[in-house]
Amino acid sequence: MLKKYFYLLTTCLLVVLFTACSEDDSSTGSGSGSGGGGSTQECSLSSEDLQGTWKLQSASSSATLTTIANISVLDAWSKVTTPMNVSIIMGDADPVTASLNYLHVSSNDEKIFFFLSEESFWSSWGNTYIEIECDITDLNSCSSFMSHMDGTNSVHVDLSSISSVEWVETPSNGTYELTVPIFSEVAESSTISTDSESAMSTGSIIINADTPLVIQSLTDVQDAWDQSYMTLNSDGTISHYNTLDCDLINPENDNDCYSEGCAPTMTDDMLTGCSNVDCGSLANINDCLSWNACVWLDNTCLDYESNDMLASGWSLNCNNGESELVLTTTNSGTDNSYNVAYDVLVSDNQMSMSISQDFCNVYYYYGYDCDAYSGPAADFYGLSGNQIESLVISSAHHYIVSEMPTMRSNDLKFIENPIARPNIIQIFGK
C-alpha cells in the first residue's frame, strides 16, 4: 500500500502544481485559493513587470496537515529509544554498520507496514532502510526488503529471514514497540545481519485540532552547475531553458556525477571531476538508455528533449487586488489546456511565485474518490481519514532578472526543476 499510494500522490502533486486539475480552459490552483476571475480592484503589477527572462534562485515547499480534533499518532519524527544496528558487508568492501534510528508505521484493512530508516521518513531517509510488510491479523506472515546506498557501494535485497515481528501498542502511555528478531541474509555477494534482537520503541505526538501540523518543509538552492531559466514573452508564450554544466561539480565519488546526470571524469584511474554526456556519441541502445539525459529514437541516441510538462503560455490576472501569474499547459497530442494561478510578487528585479493546493482536489482529477483523506491518513498511524480537515501542499519559487545563457541545454533537467516538481513531494515518492 505504501509504495502504491506514494506513487499516486507523487503523480497527482506533479499534475496539480504544474498543470492543475480542471476542465479545458479553466483556471484553478491559486495560492490565494481562487482560480481567477478578475476584479474591478486594480492590481499593482502589469504584464510588463513580468516580461523578460528570470533565473531560478531557490524553491521552498511544505506539506501541512490539519485535523478536526486532537489526535494522538505514532511519533515518526523523533528517534526511537533503541535503534537497530545492521552490519552490511558488500564483496571486498569494508564492513558498514547502519543505525536505523526512526520507525514509521502505516496500515490499511489488510496490511501493516513498518519502515525503519537512518533518518526520518519525512526527511532524507539516510543511506539505509528496511521495509517490513505483514498481514495485519498475522504478524508471523511478513515480507521484508532492505536497501543500502552510500555513494560508493549499494545493495538491494529481500530479507527472507525476517518473516515475523512483534508489535505492541500501549494506548495508556502512548507508546509503540516493534521487535525484530536477529537475522542474517546472504545475497548479491553481500551479507546483511544483526547480532541481537532489536526492540525499537517510540512514543506519540498530539496533533491539535485546527492547528496546522507542518509535516515537512524543504528549501532547495540551485546548484551552480544546474540552472533553470524561464522567459515570459510579450506575446503570452513561455520559453524554458535549463542548463547542466557538469564541469562545475567537484565530486567526492562517482555517484556525485551520476546523480546529476553527468559522467565521471577519470585521470590515471582517479576521479577528477564530472563531464556532460554526449548522447550523439553513443552507438547502441543500452549505452544510450543508461543515461537519463539521452533517448533512443530511430536507431540514434539523442539528447532527451521534452517540454510536455512545462507551461507554454502565461497571463497576469488581478484577483481582488492580488496579482496572479496564470500558467497554461496543453496536454501533449491534445487541445486540452489547463491553467494554474500563482500568487506573484515582483520587487527589485526579483520575482516570487507561490501556490497552495488541497490534496483531495488533486486526487479527484484522476477519477478517484478522496474518501475523506483515507489515503494520506493511512500513513499516520493512529489517524483516520475522517479526522483530517485538510492536507495542503504549498510551494514557492524565487527568481532574479537574468540574461539567457549560451551553454548547452539539457532539457531533461526540468524534471528535477522545482518549478515542475516541488521538492516537498520527494517525501511522497521514494
Overview of this structure, please?
The strands form seven sheets. Strands 1, 2, 17, 18, 19, 24, 25, 26, 27 and 28 form a ten-stranded mixed beta sheet that branches. A five-stranded antiparallel beta sheet has the order 6-7-8-9-10, with no helix packed on it. Helix content is 9%, strand content 45%. It contains six helices and 28 strands. Strand 6 and strand 7 (111-117) form a beta hairpin. The chain is mainly β.
Report helical residue fraction.
under 10%
**In whole angstroms, how far apart are the ends?**
13 Å
DSSP, total strands: 28
Uncertain runs are 1-30, 32-39, 407-422, 424-430
Total domain count: 2
Arithmetic mean pLDDT = 82
Structural class: mainly beta
Tally of individual helices: 6
Query: How much β-strand is present in the residues?
Result: 35-45%
Question: What's this model, at a glance?
Answer:
The chain has 430 residues and is mostly beta strands. It has helices spanning 2-16, 47-50, 254-258, 285-289, 359-365, 374-377; strands at 27-28, 52-67, 71-74, 84-90, 96-100, 102-107, 111-117, 128-135, 138-149, 154-158, 166-170, 175-180, 184-187, 190-193, 198-202, 204-207, 213-221, 226-232, 238-244, 263-267, 270-275, 294-297, 300-303, 313-319, 322-330, 337-347, 350-358, 388-401.
